[in-house]
Specification:
Layout: H1 3-13, E1 15-16, E2 22-23, H2 28-39, H3 41-57, H4 64-84, H5 97-104, E3 110-115, H6 120-136, E4 141-146, H7 150-158, E5 166-170, E6 176-181, H8 186-197
Helix pairs in contact: 3-4
């Protein structure tokens, strides 16, 4: 492939990231692999740590204490997942993309979270997002969409979401304003809302 053809190919397949820089999106197979691990990071990490813990504990033979420690670890992981999981009533579900588009254009800014119950960073962000929801009040609509649901997967494809959690901020007309990956920038969102209320 000539250099010109390579540059043209990269330009055609490249996109502008939210920060204004060009980037080349990953190959679809690589994107799907990254999504698989990102969407299930809590379960994968807990399993790896559990296997390592079991290996370390049972090197010299298995004792009742080893079994108790492993059972406590599994119970602790399950309890942590249940405690930090976003309640079903806070998750937003749509039967079609048109319904999502209508909600997005209702006139107030919207923060869309792409979420998975098995994602470690999603679980860790729940208290932050709950706090932002209380601080913003009715100035901000927060939609939490499960990326593993059919509509969530289609929205993730629409907005090129690879990692969870990803937060996308829209203005009241449904136009994308900002994107945050892994952690929502509460200060920036609150500043944006203050600026919108002064207009």
């Amino acid at each position: 492939m000539t250099l010109v053809a390579l540059i043209v190919s990269m330009h055609v397949h490249s996109r502008i990231a939210p920060n204004g820089l060009w980037y080349h999106p990953p190959h679809p197979a690589m994107r799907d692999l990254i999504r698989f691990f990102s969407y299930r990071s809590f379960v994968i990490a807990a399993s790896v740590v559990g296997v390592l813990l079991a290996f370390v504990l049972t090197r010299d033979g298995r004792s009742a204490l080893d079994v108790i420690i492993l059972a406590a670890y599994v119970a602790g992981c399950a309890a942590l997942n249940l405690w930090l999981r976003t309640p079903k009533e806070k998750l937003t579900s749509f039967d079609e993309l048109a319904a999502f588009d209508r909600v997005l254009r209702e006139g107030r800014p919207t923060l869309l979270e792409f979420y998975s119950d098995q994602c470690a960073a999603c679980l860790a962000n729940r208290p932050l997002l709950d706090s932002l929801e209380r601080q913003a009040g009715n100035r901000l609509q927060i939609l939490r969409v499960d990326v593993r649901s059919p509509i969530g997967a289609r929205l993730a494809d629409r907005y090129d979401v690879i990692f969870t959690p990803t937060f996308v901020l829209f203005n009241g007309r449904g136009e994308k304003q900002q994107e945050f990956v892994y952690v929502v920038n509460r200060g920036w969102v609150l500043y944006y809302l203050d600026q919108q209320s002064r207009k």
